[in-house]
Predict the structure.
Amino acid sequence: GLSVSKDFDFFYFVQQWPGSYCDTKQSCCYPTTGKPAADFGVHGLWPNYNDGTYPSNCDSSAPFDQSKVSNLITTMQKEWPTLACPSGDGVTFWSHEWDKHGTCSEEVLDQHSYFARALGFKTQTNILQALKTAGIQPDGGSYSLSSIKSAIQSGVGYTPYIECNTDESGNSQLYQVYLCVDNSGSKLVECPVFPHGKCGSQIEFPSF
Ligand code: 5GP
Ligand code: 5GP
Ligand code: 5GP
């Protein structure tokens, strides 16, 4: 449109731990392309406002078009796997993320750039390596929330927000890691605002 101002302030770049998606009451289904690696997977790149609110579903005239990301599909299957049931090839998950979030940042990232940037941030952040370097392994053990945050801060250079969920026994566990990206989608920044939500002071890091 005519406006030159971007109508959002930053992105959350969100990654999920598959072990914590799968060991819940709701459970999970592996993609039709096979069990994902024991690594964090991309959940999404979400435009957000500094007041904590966010735009969504901004352009119903621009649906997800697989042909625009054909050169990224193999990498998306690996780095952005779907774990929802029933099993799928990922297109439903990627379409949802594009429709809900990606269409709200079209003025800075077209569809190909949106997926390519997210994959780039996945590689750049390498959260699992940051945690392992600090001795924090996906071994079902319990770790302090502060040690997890410090390990990611040290490895990535930015302070993450940790979202927890609960396993079937009700234990609080490491589910998603939020980092922030500037509103041009080009670089990591410190988060202007964190989401809200509870973790225990000690949380589990389940295997996958
Ligand atoms: P939940 O209610 O499970 O936390 O989030 C459901 C969905 O709402 C997320 O997957 C995401 O699409 C969206 N969402 C939740 N919190 C935020 C947020 O703080 N910022 C943005 N941009 N989206 C969010
Ligand atoms: P969000 O929470 O991002 O708004 O929505 C996530 C949507 O994508 C839900 O409809 C969920 O069923 C679907 N989905 C498909 N695969 C996954 C996955 O691996 N993780 C999450 N969190 N949602 C997935
Ligand atoms: P502080 O601002 O003192 O670090 O934390 C204030 C409260 O927020 C504490 O209850 C702390 O456990 C919680 N908290 C700090 N960082 C995170 C985080 O990354 N995720 C979640 N869920 N809670 C956090």
The chain has a mean pLDDT of 96. The chain has one domain: 10-126+162-196. Residues 16, 21, 43-44, 82-84, 93, 96, 100 surround guanosine-5'-monophosphate (ligand 2) (CB under 6 Å).
